[in-house]
Amino acid sequence: MIIGDTVHRKMVFHQRVKEFPIPFKKRIRSLSYSDPEKRIIKGVAAIDNDFSHASANITEGGVGYSYVTVRMKSQRHHPLNFEVEIYV
């Protein structure tokens, strides 16, 4: 998932989100970021490193705000392995 503009923007946050698989379960994790300088977010990227058809969506804030919460969900029986990047 790439929302907004990430090209030629300053990356202010980067984190790898990794969860091991649990049989018959989906892994769900939320990640929140709030810019301490109250800069406006121009782009959000959440990349599935395993190409496992996991999903990511923004549940709060995002592009046009100074904060964002990204919710990531794996497929059943699969790990969660995302790179989350925030650009201003």
Automatic annotation (TrEMBL):
A Pfam family reported for this protein in Swiss-Prot or TrEMBL: MBF2
Organism: Parnassius apollo
Top-level taxon in the UniProt lineage: Eukaryota
Lineage: Eukaryota, Metazoa, Ecdysozoa, Arthropoda, Hexapoda
Protein name as annotated: (apollo) hypothetical protein
